[in-house]
Each structure stands twice: as C-alpha cells, then as structure tokens.
Amino acid sequence: MNPVYYLYLAALLFTIGAAGVLIRRNAIVVFMCIELMLNACNLAFVVFSRMHGNLDGQIIAFFTMVVAAAEVVVGLAIIVSIFRTRHTASVDDASLMKL
Amino acid sequence: MENLIALLVAAPLVGAALLLCGGKRLDRTGAWIGSLFAVASFAVAAVLFADMLGKSAEDRAVHQHLFSWIPVGGFQADVGFQLDQLSMTFVLLITGVGSLIHIYSIGYMEHDERRRRFFGYLNLFLAAMLLLVLADNYLLLYVGWEGVGLASYLLIGFWQHKPSAATAAKKAFLVNRVGDVGLSIAIMLMFTTFGTFAFGPVLAATGDTSEGKLTAIGLMLLLAACGKSAQVPLQSWLGDAMEGPTPVSALIHAATMVTAGVYLITRSGAIFNAAPDAQTAVVAVGAVTLLFGAIVGCAKDDIKKALAGSTMSQIGYMILAAGLGPIGYAFAIMHLVTHGFFKAGLFLGAGSVMHGMNDEVDMRHYGGLRKYMPVTFVTFGLGYLAIIGFPGLSGFFSKDKIIEAAFAKGGTEGWILGGAALLGAAITAFYMTRVMLMTFFGEKRWAETPGAAAPGQQVQHPHESPKVMTIPMIVLAVGSVFAGALFSVNEAFVTWLEPVTSFAHGHSPLSATAITASTIVVLLIGVGLAWQMYGRKPVPAVAPRGSLLTRAARRDLLQDDFNHIVLVRGGEHLTRTLVYLDHSVVDGAVNGTAASMGGLSGRLRQLQSGFVRSYAVQMLGGAAVLVAATLLMRGV
C-alpha cells in the first residue's frame, strides 16, 4: 500500500484537530484535539521513517509521546483547577489571569 | 615713584567705599569727603606728572605690577598699571576736570537728600575710568570699562524716582553692553592670536599677524568704542543720559566715559595701523557721527540735549582723527583734552542756568539771561567760542589740526573726510550760536512777577550760582581759552605723545593757511546763519513745526524709531518664529514620535486578548507562513 495515503490521513487528522482547537470552546475537547494533532504528526513521522528507511522518525515519535503524556498530566490538572474555581470549562471565559 | 600709580586708582575707590558703606553719619560731610578724595587723586597725578617731565622721552613710561590675578597655565592675567604719556594725559584730564566737577556738585547737589550716595558714585566713576586708562593689559582695561558702565548706570538713573531717568539708565547700560560684547570678543581674539592680552606683547606682535585677524580685532574694538563713545550706530543712549544730574552729564561728556572709545582706539593704534580696512571703518563711523550729532544738536530745544548732540559730534571728530593713523592720533587726544575743558565748562554753565531757573531745561523759556548770570554768561561764552573754533581759543587749534589731517588722508577719501569735517565745523558754529542766543540774548521769555507773565510764560527769579559752582566754571573757562595755544607751541603736545602713539606729518592737498582760512569762513557762515534765524528776530516760545529734517532731528534723526522697528520688532519676530519652530518642529518631532509609539502599542496590545483560541489562530497562521516560506525558498 502506498505510504502517501498515510500522509493524507495524517494531514486530515491534523486538520480536524486544528479545526477543533479553533472552533470548540470546551477545554476538554480542545485538549483532545491537540492530542489529535500531536498524533497526526506522530503518524507522519512514522510514515517518513518508513519511506526513508531509517529510524529517526520513529524515535522522534516516541519523544513526542513522552512529552504528550507529560503535557496531558499538567494540562488536565490545570483544566480541573480552572473548572473548580470557575465552574466552567470554556476556554473563552478564562481570558483573564485573575478571576 | 611708580608705586604711587596704584594710589591714583585707590584714592577715589576708597572714597567710594567710604561714602557708600559709611551710612547716615556721613550725610553732612559726604560731599566734601568725596571731593577730597578726587582732589587727592589729582594731587598724586600732578606729582607723577612732574616726575615724568623730569625724565627723557624714552624713559617716561613706568610700570607697576601689583599681583598675578588669574594664573592658569598659558593664561596669565595680571593686575598691573602702565603710566606713559598717553595715560598721563588722560589721568590729568580725568582727575583734574573730575575734581572740578566734584567741587561744583557740592553746590549743585546741596539740597539733594541722597548727595552722599551721589558723591560715592562720582568717586566710583573716577576710579573705574582711571583703572581703564592705567591698565597695562586689555583684561584689566575691560574691568575698568565695565566699571565705567556700571557707574554711568548708577549716575544716569540717580533720580530713580523719575521713570524717565530709570529708563534712560537702563537704555545706556543695555546699549553699552552691545559694545562691551565687541570688546570681550576682541580680547578673546587677541588671546587666540597672540596668546596674551598685555599691551606690550600684543602691540609689538602686530607685524607678524595676518591682516584678516587684525581687521577682525580692529572691528570688534571699534564696536566697543562705538558703544562707550556714543558713535553711530550705538549712539542712542547719549541723549537720554541727560536725565542724570547735570554734573554727571559734564563728567560723562568731558572727562570720562565717552573718551574711553577714543582711548581704546589710540591705545590699540598698532593694530589699526596694520589693518587699513578697520581704519576705514573707524573714519567712516567718525565722519558719519560728527555730522549726525551736529544735525541733532541743531534741532533740540533742551539745552542739555543740544550739548549732548554736540558731544556726539565732537567725539566723532576724535574718532575720525584716531582712524587716520599716525597723522591723527595726537590730534584726536589733543581735541579730547581741549574738549574736556570747554565741554565740562559748557555743561557746568548749563547746570548753573538750570540751577537759577528752577531746573527748566527748555531754551525757549530762557532768553536775556546775560544780565542775571554774568559769571555763567562769560564762562559759557568762552566755552562757546572755544567749541566753535574761534581763532586763538583751544578748539580752534585742535579742530583745525583734525580737519587738516582729514584732508591729508589723501585721494577722494581725504576730500570727503575733510569736507565732512568742514561741514561739521559750520554746523557746530550754527547750533552753538543758537544755544548761546536762545539762552543769554534776546527777549526774556519768562516773567519775574506773576502779574507780568504772558500766557504760557513761567515765573522765574534767575540768580547767579554760589562761588563753589562758579569757581570750577572759571577754571574750566581759562582752560578752554589757553589749552589749545599752550599745546600748539612748538607742537608741544604732539612731541609729548609721539613716543606712545607715533606721529607722522600729513601731506594735505591744501595748504595749512587755506584750511585755516576755510574753517574761519565756514565758522562765520554758521554763526551768521544762526544770528539771522535766532538773533535778529524773536525766538517763539513754542517750537514751530519745522521742516521734515528739523522734525526728524528733534527725534534724534529717528534713531530710536530705527532701533525700534529694525531691532525690537525684528527681535520680536525672530523670537516668535523661533517659538513657533520650537513648538511645531522640535516639539512636533518629539511628540509625534511618542504619539506614534503610543498608537502602535495600542494596536499591538490588542493582540494580547487573553483568548486562547485567538492565540491558537496566530500560531497556526505563523506556522503556515513559515511552511509556505520554506517551500517557496526550496522552490527557488
């Protein structure tokens, strides 16, 4: 199967993720869309790794996963904290540093 | 003997300090104390003069170094005095005539409550003027120069309760400042050119210096001389300076102040000799001023202002002579000395007339005073004959020599200058005869009893002044009569000054006899014309409207109007333009930069909205741009 199709898929996923980040207000959904974009990139890395026949892309994909995992931890903690204080998870309501 | 020189300056200075700091306990004796210090200075001058006469001509110049004033590296300013024949002449004139004026003031200021202060200022004036003529370098001369300016300011504005006197004092001070700037620039130029400003080295080094620099120094010195000596274009203060008490006018016009410019130019003779362009400027100023002052003098009805015009004109003669170079210096100083006698005499006479006429200065309210003030009439009359150059009196000898020297300048220039000097002599004869006729001759234009007074006439009880006033007038009148003849015997005065100013015989295109004859002819024409206009018919008590020239001359030939329109208005426009430029251009640039920065920041601030999604769009857009740019670069 032609690896280019995987690239199309990666681009499609990235676009969906980007659109979600820009359009949706709910912090959890935005967060999930970010994950979608990260994983679209991972897919693209892996495809390139396959196409070029070396492991560089795959190694970077692992790095991305580690960073994404750490980011999820911190990000979810922030979102939970915001929800507790403001009783909403809308990113537009949290436009100020103060309450 | 040279240790006495400092005493010349110190005596009046101590007198001034004593009188100005002494307080009320000196109020009664102040006038005598002030006069005593002036006479003491004259006595020292006489001793030094006798000593100087005993030496040969080459050894006569003596120096006294007092102390080092500002020793800073290459800049050495000393306080030292130099007494040579030129300084000696001035010292004798200043202390001699000055002392007589002091004594006269005892009588004149008898009823003034502030006379102690008046005598303090007079002493200060003498001290400053003596410092000016005795200094052995230009910087110390400048100190005396400024001191004279200060003392004149204090004395002209002595009756400060009169707004006109206060204004006149300010005017004199400000106009003098313009000239002072010239002197300070000249001194700075000397320092950069010669590295020193002591008379000896500066005047000796003129041979090795470029003519351009010497011309610049000469023109700046001329500006200074114009300010102090009231020459065109800085002449406007002199007429208003008549607001001061009359003895002050006598002091300013005869012995001090206005002679300072002539001294400066004569002292700096070596510089002018090496800078012909500057000399041309000097003679031009002198010739213009001698006619200017004479014309102004013709139209004034105020006796003091008529005499002020005459001073301006006579100083013009001196400046003209000083600009002629070695053929003229000695005659400039000779005329200065004779003028010191007769002008002091004339002013003291005018003061005596005012003293007897309740301070009335308008000559149209005088008339027929010769019977009431015989001593004043005779002394004033002798001064009058001297100033118009009546043969045998002092003005005849000195003015005649200047006219001769002016013709001897040679070429067209000589004819123009000589013609101007001759014309000036004619006008001098005219206006002085006019003063004489309006004051002492003709019908009385005043009344002795209120009943006899015609409408507009004043009631006056004219009387002769006390002896303390008439004796100085008599002494000055004797000087006016004999000084010129005394100086001219065997060219005594020229021989006396020659070691300092150098002297060259001028070669006039006209013979001396022809010039003397023509001066006598123009003198008679001037006197005759004045007799025709003011002697044969009665003088109207109210000034007639007069011709255009007369009206202009009454307003000092529009000098104040000129200054007002050109300098005051011009200055106002200049400052307005500068303020406008400052507001619009300088402030505009600064404020505009600040405002545009502020506006830009306002726009940029709006990007930081705090909305996460808008940041996301910006990041996405930025990333897209980067990717597009990368692809484009690849493509190229």
From TrEMBL, chain A:
Pfam families: Oxidored_q2 (PF00420). It catalyses: a quinone + NADH + 5 H(+)(in) = a quinol + NAD(+) + 4 H(+)(out). GO terms for cellular component: NADH dehydrogenase complex; plasma membrane. This is NADH-quinone oxidoreductase subunit K. HAMAP family: NDH1_NuoK. It is found in: Cell membrane; Membrane. The lineage of its organism: Bacteria, Bacillati, Actinomycetota, Actinomycetes, Kitasatosporales. Belongs to the complex I subunit 4L family. NDH-1 is composed of 14 different subunits. Subunits NuoA, H, J, K, L, M, N constitute the membrane sector of the complex. Keywords: Cell membrane, Membrane, NAD, Oxidoreductase, Quinone, Translocase, Transmembrane, Transmembrane helix, Transport. It comes from Streptomyces piniterrae. It comes from the Bacteria. NDH-1 shuttles electrons from NADH, via FMN and iron-sulfur (Fe-S) centers, to quinones in the respiratory chain. The immediate electron acceptor for the enzyme in this species is believed to be a menaquinone. Couples the redox reaction to proton translocation (for every two electrons transferred, four hydrogen ions are translocated across the cytoplasmic membrane), and thus conserves the redox energy in a proton gradient. Its EC number is 7.1.1.-. Signal peptide: none annotated. GO terms for biological process: ATP synthesis coupled electron transport. The chain crosses the membrane at residues 6-23, 28-48, 60-83. The keyword Nucleotide-binding does not apply. It is a multi-pass membrane protein. It is an enzyme of class 7 (translocase). GO terms for molecular function: NADH dehydrogenase (quinone) (non-electrogenic) activity; quinone binding.
From TrEMBL, chain B:
It is found in: Endomembrane system; Membrane. One of its GO terms (cellular component) is membrane. The chain crosses the membrane at residues 31-54, 89-106, 118-135, 181-204, 216-234, 246-266, 278-299, 372-394, 414-437, 468-489, 509-531, 615-633. One of its GO terms (molecular function) is NADH dehydrogenase activity. Residues 69-119 form the NADH-Ubiquinone oxidoreductase (complex I) chain 5 N-terminal domain. It comes from Streptomyces piniterrae. Residues 135-417 form the NADH:quinone oxidoreductase/Mrp antiporter transmembrane domain. Coiled coil: none annotated. Pfam families: Proton_antipo_M (PF00361), Proton_antipo_N (PF00662). This is NADH-quinone oxidoreductase subunit L. It comes from the Bacteria. The lineage of its organism: Bacteria, Bacillati, Actinomycetota, Actinomycetes, Kitasatosporales. It is a multi-pass membrane protein.
